[in-house]
Amino acid sequence: MTQQYRAYLVGENGVFRSAEAFEASSDSSALAFAKQFTRLGKVEVWQLGRKIAVLESEQSRLLEPTRPTLTRQ
């Protein structure tokens, strides 16, 4: 059984810029589908009135500083 979801593209000011309606069989499937939109910016995933998650944009993940890995010798 599938459920209705929406992926909202969130602008820098926090206002929804656009939305994509889709169906998925579970929350995890919906998140996997919505992840494709993160190349455009931050995405909020909703199932009716229930917020599932906020997915950060690919660009913000690329700009995060990498932490050095400590190795023991």
The helix fraction, in percent, is 10-25%
**Total helical elements:** 2
Point out poorly predicted stretches.
none
Note the run of SSEs as H and E.
EEHEEH
Structural shape = globular
Mean pLDDT across the residues is: 87
Strand content: 35-45%
Largest sheet: 4 strands, antiparallel
Lateral arrangement of strands in the main beta sheet? 2-1-3-4
Supply Rg. Answer: 15 Å
Structural domain tally = 1
Distance between the termini: 53 Å
* DSSP summary, beta strand count: 4
Description:
The protein has one domain. The protein has helices at 27-34, 58-63, and strands spanning 3-10, 16-24, 42-47, 50-55. The model has no long low-confidence stretch (mean pLDDT 87). It is of the alpha+beta class and 73 residues long. It has a four-stranded antiparallel beta sheet with strand order 2-1-3-4. Helices cover 19% and strands 40% of the residues. It is built from two helices and four strands; from the N terminus they run ββαββα. It starts with a strand and ends in a 10-residue tail after the last helix.
Structural key phrases:
alpha+beta; 73 residues
List the helices and strands and how they pair.
Blueprint: E1 3-10, E2 16-24, H1 27-34, E3 42-47, E4 50-55, H2 58-63
Antiparallel strand pairs: 1-2, 1-3, 3-4
Can you describe this structure in just a few lines?
The protein has 73 residues and is an alpha+beta fold. 19% of the residues lie in helices and 40% in strands.
